[in-house]
Write a structure and sequence with these properties.
Blueprint: E1 6-14, E2 18-23, E3 27-31, E4 34-42, H1 47-56, H2 66-71, E5 75-82, H3 89-98, E6 120-123, H4 129-137, E7 151-155
Antiparallel strand pairs: 1-4, 1-5, 2-3, 4-6, 5-7
């Protein structure tokens, strides 16, 4: 996992419906079986390595972010991350919002520090690699100096 700062997307799988899952102060929600895409950023100390290590853990002593509550009940399938020097949360959330095949199950999920309506998106089937690649790479500046950023995809068992 990259040690630099950047933006990331988690793909989480819920095998069976999760009724009445409490998401901190946000409330209690039912999560349908399927795939959830969560957009976040790691520009603080520790960068992507620390944040993604946190998200990979199922048992956390303290649930901090909205996604921690979902992560405790969902399988983390895949992590997309980029070390692009500017936060891309807004652009990535907009791209996912614009996708007709994705829904936004919980308003304000993960979006307490941004203007995005949500950072969580849902699809009953695994998202298309081709579509996701296009959506996430489009906001990146191809003219950025070489070595300034990279994108990586990690599939988890």
């Amino acid at each position: 996992m990259p040690t630099a700062r950047g933006t990331y997307l988690l793909i989480l799988h819920v095998a069976d419906d999760l009724p009445d899952l409490a998401i901190g102060r946000l409330g209690t929600f039912t999560f349908a079986a399927g795939y959830y895409l969560y957009v976040g950023s790691a520009f603080g100390s520790g960068g992507l390595a620390a944040r993604l290590k946190h998200h990979c853990r199922i048992d956390k002593p303290h649930l901090h972010w909205h996604v921690d509550y979902l992560r405790a009940a969902a399988h983390l399938c895949e992590i997309w991350s980029t070390t692009y020097p500017q936060p891309l949360e807004t652009q990535w959330c907009q791209a996912l919002h614009d996708a007709e095949w994705l829904t936004q199950p919980i308003p304000r999920f993960g979006a307490s520090d941004t203007r995005n309506p949500t950072h969580l998106f849902y699809t009953p089937t695994y998202p298309s690699l081709k579509w996701l690649s296009h959506a996430l790479l489009t906001p990146l500046d191809p003219l950025a100096p070489e070595g300034v950023w990279q994108i990586s995809v990690e599939r988890l068992p």
